[in-house]
């Protein structure tokens, strides 16, 4: 019997990340508090947020409101681009916002060190390699239990890992992964370096934000047919595909019935043929673009 709701993936630092988490990007502060509480009351043990989402305070309130002990919950948050030169301060800001004593996983949100004075400029004297030097120091405080990166492509990871200052291999790379952005080379590269991948926008991100250009992934015939055959929803099929690729998944919802549905992943699985039929989907799109940043981060599907 497959028990995905209690599944954890081992990380390279000896810790284990719960396979299913709740995403919170674009969850408004007033809705996210209750969404986090609901998710934790219904079995979720992993919450993903970021300083950039502007909702850490309410995420923290949702955690406390749930009554689930802090030590049973995995909290991921991320260093915003304008804080790359002030890692310790950025980290402390997230701790204060969330009002918790430690962060389970602290990520560099993007490999882009934006000038805090002018968000159209990249800092001339700073890049993510220097940011990582500061991230590594957080481990000594005991308040960041694991550290990692997000939106890093192969060339970013090659640069980081080959730098002599890199003593700690990122535990996680959180990247956009769904059937229309499967990034097999990046996934394989991370695996070869012992870096676990968390899949974001794993449902194809249908929030309709100005930077969301997703197509109707959940209407893809391969997904719809499988959903009918297996009496599941298309979203559940998409999430199971992500889990069975060995990635953790962090579907976002503020809707209780969907929060439940996205966690109803026990006791069934996809066969190899079913996995292959989803992997054969040809449409391609990315939910998260890099046009709003001062430098290009994404150079093609697997660059
Ligand atoms: P997503 O999880 O792929 O999709 C979220 C959208 O799907 C919401 O509109 C949600 O609506 C809807 N939805 C959720 N479950 C559903 C279901 N069962 N049936 C129908 N619709 C459903 O998109 P995402 O927010 O882009 O990605 C997930 C999380 O990944 C984020 O929230 C964030 O935590 C993380 N993320 C990280 C980065 C990064 O740069 N590291 C970038 C993007 C995302 P309702 O909420 O209205 O129910």
From TrEMBL:
Oxidoreductase: is it a keyword of this entry? yes
- Keyword vocabulary terms for this entry: Oxidoreductase
Look up the domain of life of the source: Eukaryota
Q: Matching Pfam families, A to Z?
A: Aldo_ket_red
InterPro entries given for it? AKR (IPR020471), Aldo/ket_reductase_CS (IPR018170), NAD(P)_OxRdtase_dom_sf (IPR036812), NADP_OxRdtase_dom (IPR023210)
- The record places domain NADP-dependent oxidoreductase at 20-281
What is the name attached to this protein's record? NADP-dependent oxidoreductase domain-containing protein
Give the taxonomic lineage as stored in the record: Eukaryota, Fungi, Dikarya, Ascomycota, Pezizomycotina
